[in-house]
TrEMBL record, chain A:
Subcellular location: Cell membrane
Name of the featured protein: ABC transporter ATP-binding protein
Span of the signal peptide: none
InterPro entries: AAA+_ATPase, ABC_transporter-like_ATP-bd, ABC_transporter-like_CS, ABC_transporter_ATP-binding, P-loop_NTPase
Molecular function terms, GO-annotated: ATP binding
Keywords: Antibiotic resistance, ATP-binding, Nucleotide-binding, Transport
Species: Prauserella endophytica
TrEMBL record, chain B:
Membrane-crossing residue ranges in chain numbering: 37-55, 100-120, 141-164, 176-199, 206-224, 257-277, 316-338, 358-385, 406-432, 452-472, 479-499, 519-540
Annotated keywords: Membrane, Transmembrane, Transmembrane helix
Signal sequence segment: none
Native source species: Prauserella endophytica
Keyword Transmembrane helix: yes
UniProt name for this protein: ABC transporter permease
Length: 305, 551
């Protein structure tokens, strides 16, 4: 399998702010890659480096096998970009903006454009300044989805869309995936990433802290378990990987690290289990662990300084 | 609970409610403008002080002074100076306020309108005002606070100008009157800004419209003053202009305060109109409702050059119309001007170089003046280019197959073609006006040539602005200094006999003001080459820098 995006040890600073601090990111061709991280983590900065809008201080980036800064124009013919905050020209209509973007990119597919306008319920005859935030977003999305490109770079593309439009968006991305195209999807909408992404990378403070498929990431985190037992469960508390054990009247709740799950289940068998539920971690828990760590991390740094 | 329900809010209560939070907003604006506020309010008095010192050192003796009046008492001098009160018994201070005062007044007008638009429409447009309005802030608080801020600037400028002038030993009463005249223009154009800010959703359109009215005020009083100096023609035109009122106070000569009362009444009425319009519109909206447009792009709208043209098209149309009208207005004054010479005593005419030369001087000066006006267009165009980047519209375009050079290059190219086009329109307008009024159709060609000849100088300023933008985007406003220098060097240096080198630093000091001077082909070529080199450097620099993005 070839790689569409390959970033190694990218560093980017803005004055005193280090936005990216040795970032590595690999996206396989034909996959939807979810790009998650707290506000200010560096998602948009990474994307802008991939688009050749910003220049990295150090490190290497390859996009579709080429250098995003030096070969920007040639690469841009092969990709489409939707920014997080779509700004349109106040006196151009949405339809004019869509056509303009498609033409500037090189390829035009009028039929597909009209179909998308319909699906996203966009009136293309309104002037740019009269669109709501969600409708501005739709203009950029339609311009990107109507084009026949290998790679879609989407930075929080549905931040302003209503749930109905969100569903349309997800359908469109599945079609893109079926067609074998690659998508880099930065998002804060976890359900969207959970539904669409083959691979996920989590960025924090300018570094990738976790990357893999959702199943792989789940394995790294804790499963919550609730059991009803005849015998006391206090023995479990001493097992490695068990956390937050609370027990009342034969009802016990605890969390267990993925790698120790097997041992714990074996011990449970000896305790006379007559009821058991286990939840894999949700993406939200997975993320909160990382997002939450950030605070702890910062505190620790502040203390040691 | 019940007591508040029983008593409907009194009228006074609702009024103060719409103004709630004004004080806080004023403090907030003062903090936001902590550099801008003194820059304007101290800058104008300092400019006046500079004029005073420069003039004192140049024209130390009464004879020197008398030598200056040959230009200033001419109609062209009146057009670019004022009615020249008391010039028959000239003193330094009379000359200062009579000839340079006009530019202080224009600066004061700009300060007023820009300040009000900045704190009303521009705030609303960015959406910051929405956050503010959601707090305990009344509907009229933002506008009121902006007007209070503008008035504070006006008062400070008044006091400082008066102090500066008094400190040079000029009469204190006249000094205060001149300061107040400048302050009155600040207030009048602040009020005009309060109206134009209601009309369009765009801060630039609001400022542009108010600026056009400032230009109109300048032209009206220019025509009126010219008529007054000649003693024939519609001198009442000066009385239609807020700048005219401030000039009619004649500081150090008649010391009339009453024209300022006219200005205050005008400002109050216009401000009231601003409040009334503001109450009739929705937040964030303009009074001119949006219309739907074409759902598809025209076939020609397909590349960076077409996009650049589309973005500058509306501006070009507006400027073309304004320059055409302005040109015709100034041009049609040629005949009254010539008649004025016929009435003048023989020996005076001889001193001025004969009526032939006076005409050529007037027409040449007009070409130079229009070149400065078109320079405003090109600098504003580069500001527009910067807006494309900072407001986030460049990012999606540069993420398509449009390269950096094509993006900036095509925008600059449209502006660069716009410059000779606008000069042509202005020259044609003046030529037609002059030809119709004098019956001499040869003037059309002279004026068109004289205007077009300035193109390379305008290009050079465009290139300087582009280079500033490409290298240090935030430093772009420094390009206005080039224009300001061109104005001072071109308008005042000849009459002050400033050394040649001083004039020659200005891009406008080389080509020559045809038909008064010959056109220097060498200068045309060199300035064109310099401009091309500057533009190339700007493009090269822009290719290498990070795009300015919002985090
Ligand atoms: N142009 C800039 N100038 C200065 N600092 C910047 C700039 N752009 C980004 N930053 C800083 O770099 C860091 C990363 O910003 P970035 O926009 O990439 O975050 P993000 O992950 O996209 O956040 P969000 O989820 O809020 O969109 C932040 O600390 C931000 O303040
Ligand atoms: Mg972002």
């Amino acid at each position: 399998m070839s790689t569409a995006i390959d970033i190694r040890q990218i560093v980017k600073t803005f004055g005193h702010v280090t936005a990216l601090d040795g970032l590595d990111l690999t996206v396989q061709t034909g996959q939807v890659h979810g790009f998650l991280g707290p506000n200010g983590a560096g998602k948009s900065t990474t994307i802008r480096i991939l688009l050749g809008l910003l220049r990295a201080d150090s490190g290497t980036a390859r996009l579709l096998g080429r250098d995003p800064w030096a070969d920007a124009v040639a690469l841009h013919r092969r990709l489409a970009y939707v920014p997080g905050d779509v700004e349109l020209w106040p006196n151009l209509t949405g339809g004019e903006a869509i056509d303009l973007f498609s033409r500037l990119r090189g390829g035009v597919a009028p039929a597909r454009r009209d179909e998308l306008c319909e699906r996203f319920d966009l009136d293309p005859s309104k002037k740019g300044r009269t669109y709501s935030k969600g409708n501005r977003q739709k203009v950029a999305l339609i311009a990107a989805l109507a084009s026949d490109v290998e790679l879609l770079v989407l930075d929080e593309p549905t931040a302003g869309l209503d749930p109905l439009m969100e569903a349309v968006f997800q359908d469109c991305i599945r079609e893109v995936k079926t067609a074998g195209r690659t998508v880099l999807l930065s998002s804060h909408i976890l359900a969207q990433v959970e539904a669409l992404a083959d691979q996920i990378s989590i960025i924090r403070q300018g570094r990738i802290v976790e990357t893999g498929s959702l199943a792989q990431l789940r394995h790294l985190t804790r499963t919550s378990v609730e059991v009803m037992t005849d015998r006391s469960t206090t023995v479990l508390a001493d097992l490695p990987g068990v956390h937050n054990l609370r027990s009342t009247n034969g009802y016990t709740q605890f969390e267990v690290d993925g790698e120790h799950l097997a041992t714990v289940v074996r011990r449970l068998g000896e305790l006379g289990v007559h009821g058991l539920t286990a939840h894999p971690p949700t993406l939200e828990q997975l993320l909160l662990r990382h997002y939450g760590d950030q605070l702890g991390h910062d505190d620790a740094k502040a203390v040691t300084r | 609970m019940s007591t508040t329900l029983e008593r409907p809010p009194s009228r006074a209560g609702t009024e103060s409610a719409t103004l709630a939070g004004t004080g806080t907003l004023v403090r907030f604006m003062l903090r936001r403008d902590r550099i801008r506020f003194p820059a304007w309010a101290v800058g104008l008095p300092l400019l006046m002080a500079y004029f005073a010192v420069a003039l004192e050192s140049l024209a130390g003796t009464p004879e020197d002074l008398q030598g200056l009046t040959s230009f200033t008492s001419s109609p062209a001098g009146a057009l670019f100076g004022g009615p020249g009160f008391g010039f028959d018994q000239l003193t330094l201070e009379r000359f200062l306020v009579g000839q340079y005062g006009l530019y202080i007044l224009v600066g004061a007008g700009l300060m007023g309108l820009l300040t009000v638009v900045r704190h009303t429409r521009a705030e609303e447009h960015t959406g910051r005002a929405e956050l503010v309005r959601a707090n305990v802030v009344g509907r009229h608080a933002q506008l009121t606070a902006a007007l209070v801020l503008t008035t504070l600037m006006a008062v400070l400028a008044t006091v400082l100008i008066a102090l500066v002038m008094t400190s040079r030993g000029y009469d204190a009463g006249g000094s205060l009157l001149f300061g107040a005249s400048a302050g009155a223009v600040v207030v009048a154009f602040g009020a005009i800004g309060a109206v134009t800010a209601q009309l369009s959703e765009y801060p630039r359109a609001a400022a542009g419209f108010a600026g056009a009215l400032l230009g109109t005020a300048f032209v009206l009083r220019g025509l009126g003053d010219m008529a007054a100096v000649q003693g024939s023609g519609p001198s009442w035109l000066s009385w239609l202009s807020p700048i005219g009122w401030s000039q009619q106070t004649a500081p150090y000569t008649h010391d009339d305060w009453w024209p300022l009362a006219l200005c205050l009444v005008f400002s109050a009425a216009v401000t009231a109109a601003g409040y009334a319009l503001s109450a009739r519109r929705d937040f964030g909206a303009g009074l001119i409702p949006p219309r739907p447009g074409s759902p598809r792009a025209a076939a020609w709208l397909s590349g960076p050059l077409a996009l650049s043209f589309r973005l500058q098209r509306a501006g070009l149309i507006g400027w073309s119309l304004a320059l055409l009208v302005g040109g015709v207005a100034y041009g049609s004054f040629t005949q009254p001007l010539l008649e004025g010479f016929q009435d003048a005593p023989e020996d005076l005419l001889a001193v001025m170089g004969g009526s032939e030369n006076m005409l050529a001087g007037y027409l040449g000066l007009m070409g130079f003046f229009m070149a400065l006006v078109v320079t405003i267009f090109v600098i504003l165009a580069v500001h527009g280019l910067r807006g494309e980047e900072t407001e986030g519209r460049a990012e999606p375009v540069l993420a398509t197959a449009v390269g950096r050079s094509a993006w900036i290059g095509s925008y600059l190219l449209v502006s660069a073609i716009g410059a000779p086009w606008l000069l042509l329109v202005a020259g044609l307008g003046m030529g037609l006006g002059a030809a119709v009024s004098t019956g001499d159709s040869g003037l059309v060609a002279d004026l068109v040539a004289g205007h077009l000849a300035h193109t390379p100088a305008v290009w050079l300023v465009l290139a300087i602005a582009a280079l500033l933008y490409a290298a240090v985007p935030r430093a772009l406003p420094a390009a206005w200094a080039v224009l300001g220098y061109g104005l001072i060097a071109g308008m005042f240096a000849p009459m002050l006999n400033l050394p040649d080198e001083v004039i020659r630093i200005s891009p406008f000091g080389h080509i020559g003001d045809y038909p008064r001077d010959d056109i220097s082909i060498t200068a045309v070529l060199i300035l064109t080459l310099l401009a091309a080199a500057g533009a190339a450097a700007a493009i090269a620099r822009f290719r290498r820098r990070d795009l300015v993005t919002t985090a």
